[in-house]
Amino acid sequence: MSLDDHAEDLASDLGVDKEEVKADLENLVEYSVPVDEAKQSLRRKYGDGSSSSEPSQVDLADVSTEDSNVTVTAKVLTVGKRSIRYQGNEQTIHEGELADETGKISYTAWEDFGLSAGDTITAGNAGVREWEGDPELNLGESTNVAFEDDIDVPYPVGGDADLADLEPGDRGINLDVQVVEVETKTIDGRDGETEIKSGVLADESARLPFTDWEARPEVAEGATMRLEDVYVREFRGVPSVNLSEFTAVAPLDRELAISDTGTRMTVRDAVETGGAYDVEVVGSIVAVRDGSGLIERCPECGRVIQNGQCRSHGDVDGQDDLRVKAIVDDGTGTVTAVLDAERTEEVYGGDVEDAKAQARDAMDKEVVADSIRERVVGHEYRVRGNLSVDDYGANLEVTEFERSEDPPADRADALLAEVAE
Ligand SMILES: [Zn+2]
Fold first, then answer.
1. What's the 339 CA to ligand 1 centre distance in angstroms?
2. 316 CA distance to ligand 1 middle (Å)
3. CB-based burial label for 251 (10 Å; 0-12, 13-18, 19+)
4. Per-residue pLDDT tens digits of the chain, which is 421 residues long
5. Of 203, 265, 279, 357, which has the maximum CB count within 10 A?
6. If you measure from the C-alpha of residue 326 to the centroid of ligand 1, how many angstroms do you get, rounded to a whole number?
7. Are the beta carbons of 395 and 386 closer than 8 angstroms?
8. 240 CA from centroid of ligand 1 (Å)
9. Helix or strand (DSSP H, E) at 148
């Protein structure tokens, strides 16, 4: 298509003089503006009804944090409702994920557009903001939302999920769960003292901590229920389920086959979750790290100190304690298992007084860690606990630490049987 043809097109679309449009177009193209972009800008200049006032239509995969505003056509995967305090006012927002065939993206709707999971919409002039490095869409006052014919997307619609799949930031999620632990607490909320419930939920896939900000009576130990519209936050490095005032809670008419063991995972999969509650790995202890055995803690802050010096509190009278930091390797990756004093006593075979006596006799504290090394390094353990992952690595705060009960020979047989199938 020649520039002349483009000019003719535009002129008839816009109902303006062709020569005038052509001069503008030539001017822009001379400045290396691509023809399509030049036409868009002339449409805006000559006022082409509604479509020109909106940013161009993009695929979700192409939305970037560099964009300020975009127009997208997408299917609503999830809708979560939440009340937040924004600039001093209570405001109800809707949030979740949108998808088209190229990808999906999180959104926050600052007005009630009446969105439901499964709707296909065109969001004209949606704002783009960055959230933890990824683009997110803001549907606000200046966004036009139009409902469209259904499109197919390669993602599940609706928020049904298993606990094992949850990640911090998920919203509008539905779960079938059992309450395995719960306690009521009084906290200082934004409207004064308020009661909340917190504890642990389980389903067939995993266990996760939860908070019910409304302290519902039906959220009781042993209760099985369907939760609709919960959101997920990070709590001490693991995903935590939050029940808001908008969460619907209904009794479940079926039994859940929840297990009372941790979720068995490979170290690699566990670390890839970015933090997991109550997981179990089986691997060999390849080393016991420095800072294990007989250690000293600051009496003020509880942090481990060196030579009676706390980084925050300076010269302090250290308190003796026992700890193990053991590196577990299962062939897929490594994680540091951190054992508290009680579990360290079991591994060491003595308490803090025994450790002090051993250190005095040898005139060296390190002998305690050495004794632990002799007992655990090179052996296979089943390690259960809560995993947190940060810039310094992956730590498993241990709740159970047991020599693996499967003798290597059995495992080899099982592996051979699997291969033979
Ligand atoms: Zn301190």
1. 21
2. 8
3. exposed
4. 788 888 888 887 777 788 888 888 888 887 777 777 788 777 777 765 444 456 889 999 999 988 889 999 999 999 999 888 877 788 899 999 999 999 999 999 999 999 999 999 999 999 999 987 889 999 998 899 999 999 999 999 999 999 988 888 899 999 999 999 999 999 887 778 899 999 999 998 888 999 999 999 999 999 999 999 999 998 877 789 999 999 999 999 888 888 777 778 899 988 887 888 888 999 999 999 999 999 999 999 999 998 889 999 999 999 999 999 999 999 999 999 999 999 999 999 999 999 999 999 999 999 999 999 999 999 999 999 999 888 888 999 999 999 986 555 555 666 666 556 5
5. 279
6. 24
7. no
8. 29
9. none
For residue 139, what are its two tokens? 């549907």
Nearby residues of 152 by Cβ (< 8 Å), 6 or more positions away: 101
Rounded to the nearest angstrom, the distance between the alpha carbon of 289 and the centre of ligand 1 is: 22
User: Residue with structure tokens 């730590």?
Assistant: 395
> How many A from CA of 309 to the centre of ligand 1?
8
User: Ligand 1 center to residue 364 CA distance, Å?
Assistant: 24
- Token pair in block for residue 30: 């001379």
Residue 300 Cα, ligand 1 centroid: separation in angstroms? 5
249: amino acid identity, one letter: V
User: DSSP 3-state assignment of 208?
Assistant: strand
What letter represents residue 98's amino acid?
A: L
* Ligand 1 is an ion; residues with CB less than 5 A from it: 298, 300-301, 310, 312-313
Could you tell me the domains of the chain?
3-53 (no CATH), 60-147 (2.40.50.140), 163-251 (2.40.50.140), 263-409 (2.40.50.140)
Angle (CA) 84 143 139, round 5°:
30
Dist. CA 202 → ligand 1 center (Å) = 37
Tokens 């305690």 found at: 368
Give burial (CB, 10 Å; 0-12/13-18/19+) of 245: exposed
376 CA to middle of ligand 1, Å? Answer: 30
